[in-house]
Amino acid sequence: MGPEVLSIVILAAMFVVATVLPVNMGALAFVGAFVLGVFVLGMDTDQILEAFPGGLFLTIVGVTYLFAIAQKNGTVDLLVQGAVKLVGSRVALIPWIMFFITAVITAVGALSPAAVAIIAPIALSFAAKYRINPLMMGMMVIHGAQGGGFSPIAVYGVTVNGIVAEAGLDVSPTAVFLSSLIFNLLIAVVLFVALGGRGLVSARAEDFVERAAEARLSRSKVAAGHVGDKDVAFKGFGSGMYGPRDPAGSSTPPAAGSEGSESLVPQIATIIGLVVLAVVALGFGVDVGFVAITVAVVLALVSPKAQKGAVNKIDWSTVLLLGGMLTFVGVLQEAGTIEYVSDGVAGMGMPLLAALLICYIGAVVSAFASSTAILAALIPLAVPFLLAGEVGATGLICALAVSSTIVDVSPFSTNGALVLANAPAGVDRDAFYKKILVYATGVVVIGPLLAWGVMVAPGWL
After folding, report:
1. Which end of the chain has fewer CB within 10 Å, C or N?
2. Which residues are within 8 A (CB) of 351 and not within 5 positions of it... i.e. 6 or more apart?
3. Who contacts 412 (Cβ-Cβ below 8 Å, separation ≥6)?
4. What DSSP string describes 231-276?
5. What confidence tens digit (pLDDT) does each residue in 338-393 have?
6. 242 to 121, 123, 306, 429: CA distances (angstroms)
């Protein structure tokens, strides 16, 4: 068995082990790079470590550190509360507010599961309160997270753009971002129409409050005596600003910063910092990682107490995952695996069919394993095939990015599992799981085909 085939076997084994067992795939990848590099290819450890993505490491640490500070000091809660106030009594806007606020959170640096963990409990509590289809609400949160995930300063975006730039491909980061955002937005429109959104257009929040109040009054009359309003159990996590007050009550959650005007200082500073990050990194082309960590450190100095514990919230598991995977990819290049796979794909003689196959591989594997890992593995494998010019590089990268992430609605993925875990009280969890599974299966089957049909087959990207 040649080193090319052996490396593919090791890569497949890594995906299987990381899917079946709770072992970080990045750690497995470092071991795979060491074994393949030293014992098969005769490389020394210094040569192996040359492939370690130092720039990407700094970017992920800086961006996730900045977001952790924003979460710790209440800036995320402030943004969510402001977005919810925009709804007013218009119930039909609630799913869209959840979609866009989740997109914003991932666009400024949060990983998709982190954004879903924050917003899903809030969104699903609103679904129960206003009788919105929980499947629609949960899936719109996930698609919102994926829609914003490929912004040039987001983790997905930085990962894909970094790999593409290193490979010498001319792919616009803006095209990657907008393709994911628009694709997920269109899916959200379909979800809204198909799962009862049209019936919400004429609904007003006051109608649901009155019905809930009447039901509560009826229960109190049945009881032995009148009982005043009490706190009720509140399901969910990720934001302390939403009570445990009765969702049907008239009391409103305490406003962020109610402890005093001084508590708004770190939040305002954080919002300014995010604007500075976008302007400096995107407008002037300064390295995202250095700008993000500089802004984060400044915020930490401005309000040390508000950022306490933020370092522990840096997504170290993703840092390990990408560090290991891209180091392993460097060893794959040394082994000739990249050229071997690309020659095999080109040998099919049908480049469009090969591009479709790549999209389906990304979708199927990502439904069970890490989307970040599959992007880090598949894009380098597809680079020589793209350099041949038979398929548009921008179109395939965009289609692969979309195909590998829209499937995170699967209940076997972190995002899907978070939505399932926060199913509203009264919802049959088994039935809810089956609905999510059916929807995810449809996305896996149809999603890559649509992405390929829109972004690759016409040849306009």
Report:
1. N
2. 385, 388, 390, 391
3. 367, 368
4. -------S-TTS-SS-TTSS--PPPTTTT-GGGHHHHHHHHHHHHH
5. 778 767 766 777 888 888 988 998 888 888 777 888 888 888 878 777 877 778 88
6. 10, 11, 20, 23
